[in-house]
Amino acid sequence: MKNGLGYYSVIQYCPDLSRLEAVNVGVLIFVPDTGRVSMKMSSTMRRLTKVFGKTVDANLVRVSKQSLSERLQGDVTWTLAHLERFILSRANVIQIAPLRTIQVQDVHQDLARLYAELVEEERRGTSVDQQSPERELGQLIESAGLEHIERNVQVTVPAFHRAIEVPFAYQNGRFNLLWPERFGSQADHNERKSAKLAIEGHSLARSPDPQYGDLSLVVFGDFRNAPANAKAVVRDILAETKVRLFDLLDPGALVEEIRMTARRRKVES
Question: What is the 3-state secondary structure (H, E, C) of the chain?
Answer without folding.
Answer: CCCEEEEEEEEEECCCCCCCCCEEEEEEEEECCCCEEEEEECCCCHHHHHHHHHHCCHHHHHHHHHHHHHHHHCCCCCCHHHHHHHHHHCCCCEEECCCEEEEECCHHHHHHHHHHHHCHHHHHCCCCCCCCHHHHHHHHHHHCCCCCEEEEEEEEEHHHCEEEEEEEEEECCCEEEEEEEECCCCHHHHHHHHHHHHHHHHHHHHCCECCCECEEEEEEEECCCCCCCHHHHHHHHHHCCCCEEEECCECHHHHHHHHHHCECCCCCC
